Amino acid sequence: MTPQVNRRDFLKQSSAAALSMALFPSMKRKVAPSDKVRVAHIGINGMGTNHLNWFAKLPEVDVVGLCDLDQTHLDKALATLKGIHPDTTAKTYNDFRYLLDRNDIDAITCATPDHWHAQVAIMAFQAGKDVYGEKPLSYSVREGQKMLKALNRYDRIFQLGTQIHAGDNYHRVVEIIQSGAIGKVHTVRLWKTGFPPVLGPANYQTPPATLNWDMWQGPAPVSLYTPERCHFTYRYFLDYSGGIFQDFWCHIADVVWWSINPTGLKRITAKGEAPEGIGDAPKWIDIDYEFDGLKLHWTSTPPNVAGAEKRGIGAYFEGEKGTLLCDYNTREITINGVVMNDVAEVPITLQRSPGHQQNFIDSVKSRKQPESNLAYARQMTMPMHLGLISYRLGQSLEWNPRKEKFRHNSEANAMLSRPYRKGWNLI
Hints:
Keywords: Oxidoreductase
GO molecular function: nucleotide binding; oxidoreductase activity
Pfam families: GFO_IDH_MocA (PF01408), GFO_IDH_MocA_C2 (PF19051)
Domain Gfo/Idh/MocA-like oxidoreductase bacterial type C-terminal: 204-425
Shape: globular
InterPro entries: Gfo/Idh/MocA-like_OxRdtase_N, Gfo/Idh/MocA_oxidrdct_glycsds, Gfo/Idh/MocA_OxRdtase_bact_C, NAD(P)-bd_dom_sf, TAT_signal, TAT_signal_bac_arc
Largest sheet: 10 strands, mixed
Order of helices and strands: HEHEHEHEHEHEHEHHEEEEEEEHHEEH
Number of helices: 12
């Protein structure tokens, strides 16, 4: 058990450690080549570029492979890597299956569009590789189940890319809530503001010669190429993702599942509005979830509580003794009408993260699952999928958490998975 530490002492120790690193760079760990974790990156534009920069700069990592379906992304990523490590010998690939065939790769990161997450991860597990995968965990509920089964079968390590999880603020929120300072939590309100861009009209055209559009679609339904359906704006099409809601759910729901671990989901009721343009992920979506002893509400506008209007994303915990409002980096606790940003009496009980990516590398070496492990991430992600199904059907749905099925609704149960396009079920 991690020893309890007074918060003031903890901050002093943390500051001293950070200062030592800044003043004495030689204290940074030097790693022999034989002790390095060999990492390859799959999907290397956007967030994938962040993956490359993060891992390439870790002393214990050797980036040995890069893969993307767009040659322009691949060329840019290789130039980025050479800027960090001019002597790199990393190989490049346009098909991740060839990369997974290599026996000299220990782990991969995956920042593909959502509809590829599960197959890439499962095939990596089968190939004996650990996975750092971008959120959301998977495209569907059934894919998440298959991922967990494969991870356990092949004894692999997985970290979900919820980078905010590593920050001190979420750790402290969890400590305060679990201490009982605001009492038993009975209601949680989550929100993320913002509308998707209006896309279209569709500009159907021949795919660029640098892009393998057929493989980019992969298991998703086939479509003619239009730039709006590809790369960053893919997330506004339900064939591939779930819009702003799916993009941000995991980042803010994470602090809820970590602190109170909602269980016994009974009912999901969603409403929303379709967007203008050719995208079809919701313009806005509001969802009410009923768990055992807990009501959880997601909205696309801030709830009517003090301080929420100043935050574009947030979580508001209502307990029997008080409330706690937080976003990624800030928090406000209200007890007996007194507003504070900390509760001094609550000790430090959680070990702080060495960094989200470092936590993954440490886990690859120790063979102990990291903070945002797959079993945890699957439970935290599942309500997101269920909310989108309720929205798409326009129905309130009853859920059986033990069987992970909807009650008395075959149409909703059919949406827990999706048939893969012919030729693209690779697992």
